[in-house]
Amino acid sequence: MKSKLQTGAKERGLVFVISAPSGTGKTTLVRRVMEQLPDLHFSVSYTTRYPRSNEQEGEDYYFVSSSVFQKMVERGEFLEWAKVLGNFYGTTLASVNQLASKGMDLILDIDTQGAKKVMEKVDQTILIYILPPSLEALRERLVERGLDSPEMIQLRLASARKDMEEAHWYHYLIVNEKIDDAIETLKAIIIAERCRKVKDSVLGEKMREWEEHHGKNYC
Ligand code: 5GP
Q: Residue 130: which H helix or E strand, with range?
């Protein structure tokens, strides 16, 4: 069996993959959780899509041409890449390796195709899917957001319905009905997964401490 990408250090960082149909509020959710929880790093993807007016190069994405993206594919620089609604998106091996091997916990905001590849290739991947409360609510949010033409909104809704079918193999599902509740749920998942990761080392340390003070047969 092909071994998974080992990020190297003894305390490897966790990789939280977050997927959602666009318009679900995922970007706000991730940003707010990152403000509230320490030591979470956002993995900035490469894309061939044009930047939106509120987006910053190197913060939201690295915006590249199709030919640059293609060269990166040929050089094997991507851990995963996918075509989403006509544009290419990819996560580089270097960004995941550099951060996770230093023990940093990473957030990857990627689609379901990318999530599947990361799950297969990277140990310690936690998959979280965000759902809108209903397709109607999603339509309203996409209209309010004002970024898309009516045709694009139709395309996004059709793609959201199909995308949702993939959610069953994710570890967690959060329905973003109220943003504050969704923030608390996402924080709870991250905190719980961090506790799970350190369980064995904390237990070993505590047992050693107790033995040093009381010997093995303390009762
Ligand atoms: P948007 O253009 O709205 O920012 O993103 C469109 C979709 O592309 C979203 O579902 C987002 O999660 C996904 N996406 C962003 N970066 C990546 C990436 O590096 N890889 C993959 N597979 N999908 C990505």
A: strand 125-131
How much distance in Å is there from the Cα of 110 to the middle of ligand 1? Answer: 5
Residue nearest to atom 19 of ligand 1 (CA): 90
CATH for 15-43+104-214?
Answer: 3.40.50.300
- Closest alpha carbon to 92 in 108, 78, 81, 104: 78
pLDDT in tens, 105-149: 999 999 999 999 999 999 889 999 999 999 999 999 999 988 889
Domain assignments of the chain as residue spans, ordered by start: 15-43+104-214
Alpha helices, DSSP H, located in the chain: 26-36, 66-74, 93-101, 112-121, 135-145, 150-164, 179-214
How far away, in angstroms, is 213 Cα from ligand 1 center?
53
Q: What is the pTM of this model?
A: 0.91
